[in-house]
Amino acid sequence: MRKPRAASRRGGAPTSGAAAAADLDRAITFSLHLKDPGEPTSASGSAEESRALSQPLTRAELAIRRQSQYAQAVQDIVAFASKNKLAVLDISFAKRRVRLHGAIGQIGKVFGGDASARGLSDLRVPPRLRRWISGVLGLDDRPKLAALPPLPARAPRPVPFDAAAPDAAAAAGLWPRDIARLYGIGAPRGGAGECIAIIAARGGYLPADLARAAEGSGAPFPQVIDVSVDNGRNRFSGGTIEDQEVALDLQVIGAIAPAARIAVYFTDDSEQGLADAVLAAVHDVTNKPSVISISWGVGEDRWSQFALDVMNNALTDAMKLGITVVAAAGDQLATNGEGDDLVHVNYPASSPHVLGCGGTRFSLSADGTAIAEEVIWKEGSLGTGGGVSALFEVPDYQANAGVPPSFSTGKRGRGVPDVCAVAAFANGYRIVVNGKTLVQGGTSAVAPLWAALVALINAQRGRPLGRLNAALYADQTLCRRIVRGDNMAGTIGYAAGPGWSACGGLGAPIGSALLAKFTAVA
Prior knowledge:
- The protein has about 525 residues and is an alpha/beta fold.
- It folds into 2 domains: about 15-135, no CATH class; about 165-465 and about 480-515, Rossmann fold (3-Layer(aba) Sandwich), CATH 3.40.50.
- Helices cover about 30% and strands about 20% of the residues.
- It has 15 helices and 24 strands.
- The protein has helices at about 15-25, 45-55, 60-70, 70-85, 105-110, 125-130, 165-170, 175-180, 205-215, 240-255, 270-280, 305-320, 445-460, 470-475, 510-520, and strands at about 25-35, 85-90, 95-105, 115, 120, 135, 195-200, 225-230, 260-265, 290-295, 300, 325-330, 345, 355-365, 370-375, 380, 380-385, 385-390, 415, 420, 430-435, 435-440, 480, 510.
- The strands form 8 sheets. Strands 7, 8, 9, 10, 12, 14, 15 and 20 form an 8-stranded mixed β-sheet that branches. A 4-stranded antiparallel β-sheet has the order 2-3-1-6. Strands 4-5 form a two-stranded antiparallel ribbon.
C-alpha cells in the first residue's frame, strides 16, 4: 500500500500588468481524474488483486464496469463545468478522466488557485467535486523534468563515432540481438501477435535508421505505429540525446521481438502528458499492447501528489488488464543525482505494479560468444539506480527478499530494482541514429530488453503474463544473480550479494529458463 505523502503543487512565477491580463485570458486544457474507492490500489495481497492477476479483465469489460460506476460523477462534473463556463472536451470512463478547457483566469476562480503565466498554484478542488476527484492535471504545463537531468531515466552519455567510419569505430558495441543471444533470449514466434508500447516524452526517429538497424541485426524490423498523445508527436531533431533514446527503445525491441508490433506513444514531459501517455497505452483498444516499456523516470519526491495518484491508478489498471509494465531504475547511482546526500529511487520503477530494471556491465569470453563475468554497472558518476522506496511499503512478493532499511530513512519499503541486464557503454548497445552508428547504454536499454522478452513469452504461451514480479521472486532459477559491485555514490548506496540486492535485483535474465517456466503447460 502506498504510504501517505504531503501534497506538492506547482505554479509559475507571478506576472503583472498587461502581460498578466493576457496570461489570464490564455485558454488551456486540463484533466479531472476520478477517485476509485471501490477498486484497491494496494501493492500487496488483496483478494481482488489476486483475482485480477489470475483472471485479468479485458479493456471492454473494464470500460463497461466504469461507465456504470461513474455515471453520476460525470453528470455532476458536466453540470459544474457548464455553470462555470468551462468546456467539456472529452469523457473517458475507462481512464476515469474528464477533460475541460477554459481561460486560466476563470479556472483560477473556480479552483481557488493563484493564476500565473504557466499555470496555477495552491489549487483547491471545489467542495462539490471533492468526493469524485482524485487529481487535477494540466494546470501547470511546464516540462516535468525541467530542473532534472534530461530524459530518459539516466544521465545520457552517448558515445558518438567519427562520421567517416562510424561502423568500424562502433565495433566495441554489440547489436541488441547479439546481446539478447548472450542472455539466451529468443523464441520461434518472435513475438508474433503481440504489441509492445513505448512511452516517448521527447524526441523522434527516422524510419531509415530502423531499416539500417534491421540490416545490422539480420532481421526485418517490426511494424511501428505512432500514437500522438496531447501535444506529442514524432519530433526527430537530427540525432539529439532524446532522439537517441527513442532509437534505443525501438531498436532494442525490434531486434529481439521482430515479429511483434511496436506502438510509440509520443507525448510531452509535463505531468499531464506523462500520465496521459501511460493511460493511452493501458486503455488502447486499437493496438492493445500487452507490454509497456518506460525508459524515463523521476525521483519519487519530485512528483506532485495529484500526478502520483493518477499514475498509480493507471499502473493498477495495467495490472487488472494483464499488462506487464517495465521501467528503468535510473543511471545516477543510489542518490539518483539529486545532490542532497540521500538515497532516492525513480518512479515509476518503484511502483509495486512495475518490473523495475537495473543495470550491469559484462565482459565476454575470448571467442565473444558468452558472458565471462557480469557485475553491477558503475562508471564514475554513472551507474545503476536502485534502493528502497519512500512511498511504497514492501509488497508481498518481496516479503522474503531481504529488502534492507533505506540508507536515508532507516525504514523498509518496496525495493528497486527487480531485475537487471547490461547497461554499461562498454559492450553496449549498437544503434543507428541519423544514419550513423553509435553505442548507447543505461537502464533505458534494459527496460526495452525485458519488455521484448516478455512479448516473446506472451506470444509463445498464447496469453499475457501480466505482472510477473511474484513469479520471479518465487523461483530463483530464472535469473542469474549478480554478486559483485555496488551503486554507491561516495559512501551512500547498496552493494550486491548472494540474494536480491538494491542495485541488481534478482539478477540478469536466463532466457531459456524464463521461456520454459512461463510457457509450460499445466
